[in-house]
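User: Here's a chain of 272 residues. Predict its fold as tokens.
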Amino acid sequence: MKMNTKKKQIAQGAKRIRKTGIDIIGDAPWGTHFCQFYQTKEDLLDILVPYFKAGLENNEFCMWVTSEPLSEEEAKKEMRKAVPNFDQHLRSGQIEIVPHTDWYLKDGIFNLQKVLDAWTDKLNFALTKGYDGIRVTGNTAWLGKRDWRNFADYEEEINNLIGKYKMMAICTYSLDKCGASEIIDVVRNHQFALIRREGEWTLIESSERKLAEENLRQSENKYRTLVENLPQKIFLKDKNSVYVSCNENYARDLKIKPEEIAGKTDYDFYPR
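Assistant: Prediction complete.
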């Protein structure tokens, strides 16, 4: 049975929103790139185990790049506790857990472009295997002072790249190894940061992101005000000829409210 156009659009939209498995975040779209500041191994496990559990349950390819204080074997042990059939996911190749030396420091050096290309290759691999997308994490405890500037540039490139693809990423940073300037660099290059305060996880948004969102809201409000006050009849459709929105003048002709047009086609209003 073919899915009708409206239901197909709803289903496609739902696929863009993913369960993060992290209570304080909830659901998030593809392209989400955030960071976690941690102090202990338990902090890492508290966020990353449910994060990857949700990915495995929702047909995503998962990649966990480990570093001290958490080894790949410890990560696998904790995942087995949370996911009863975890070894089956390992054998099928749906999840890979590797040390940072096998990912970030191949040939003993950090090469920004090679790592970016490797993530793209993993995404292409995941999509050809039928996975909905890819969720990843990488621990930065291995970073030395000489690597920091290079890695900050890498994070900026990742932030620009990830929004275009079916990817979700958490970058984890040890608070004990970050000074004030490093923390500012990290928060600036991520959509938001997780940090534990008095035993509870807190979400901190980047000030630059907040400003961008506020500018976007203002722009949208100006656009809507303009459209609503024009005497012309205006509508917006997607490439499948499904209505996205319309102004009051157009809705009045169809005897509906403007918000009721989303997801409908001309066949909902006129005879075939």
